[in-house]
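Late entry, 2-amino-3-ketobutyric acid complex.
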Amino acid sequence: MAGRILIIGACGQIGTELTLKLREIHGDQNVVASDIREGAKELMQSGPFEILNATDESHLKEIIERYEVKEVYLMAAMLSATAEKAPMKAWELNMDSLFHVLNLAKDGKIDKVFWPSSIAVFGPTTPKDKTPQTTIMEPTTVYGISKQTGERWCEYFYNKFGVDVRSIRYPGIISYKTLPGGGTTDYAIEIFHEALKNSEYTSFLDHDAALPMMYMDDAIKATVDIMEAPAEKVKIRSSYNLAAISFTPEILAEEIKKHIDNFKINYEPDFRQQIAESWPSSIDDSSAREDWGWDPEFDLEKMVETMLEGVGNTLK
Ligand code: AKB
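Prediction complete; structure with ligand written out below:
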C-alpha cells in the first residue's frame, strides 16, 4: 500500500479491534497505533505503537511525517456520560483533534480521514423511530453538540478543500474484547459481565429505554467498507446513519434469560436515562445501504450468543 495508516485512540473500545483488523488487511507494520495510554497486549505487540495526545498537533504531525502516514482514523473522543462531567475538556479533545487532522489533510499531508460521529447528534426534537438521515438535529449533550459540529466541519472541509473525509454515526457498540468507557449505551455490555458473574444486573437505564445498537464486528465492517468504497460512492460527507439492532434493557434481559434462566434485572435509572431519552430508538440507514452497500450481519439473538461466549471466555 502507498503510505501507512494511523489510528488515533487505538486503545479504546473500537480502536483496539479496528487496529487489529486493519493490520490483518494491510500488514502489521503498515498500521501505526497511537493513544494517550498503553492498551491491550495484542495491540501493543503486533505492530508500531506511539504514545500520542490527540490534541498535540505538532507531535501528531511529526508521527505522520516519520511514518509516512496517508490515512488517519481519529477514534479518540470523550463519550456522552463522561463529557457531561467535564464539558470543556470534552469539547477541547473532541474538536481540537478533529481540526488538527482535517487541517493536515487540507495541507496535503494525508489523503484520507475517518472520523466517527454518533446517534448523539440527534436530540429530543428529532423523530425517534426510524430516524431519517436528514432531519431535525438539536442535541442536548456536550458529546452530541461536539459530534454535530464535527459533522458540519467535515462536510465543510470536503466542499471547500476537497478533503476526503468519511464518517458514520455509530449507535451503541457492543463488544467483549475491550471495555467501553463513559457511554450511555455501556449498560448493554455491563449486563453480560454481571449476568455471567452474579446472574443479576442493575441497569442505569429504565426498562423501556430503546436505543440503536450494533455488535462490534458489524461496526468494524462498516468502517472498513466506507473507507474502501470508491470516493464517488460516498455521497454524504457529513456522516451516514447506520443501524443494526434496536432494543430496550428489558428486551435484552429477556434474551439473556434464554441462556441463563435465573438471571434477574433491576432498574435504577440515573442521569444517563435523560441522555438516552434524548436519542432515537431506531435509525433509518437506507442511504448507507444504497450508497456503499451497508448490510449488518448480527441480530439480537446472534449478538447475545456471541457476547455470552466471548465474555464467558474472558472470565475463565
Ligand atoms: C455513548 O453512549 O456515548 C456512545 C455513543 C452512542 O456514541 N456509545
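Residues 149 and 165 are 15 Å apart (CA to CA). Will revisit in the morning.
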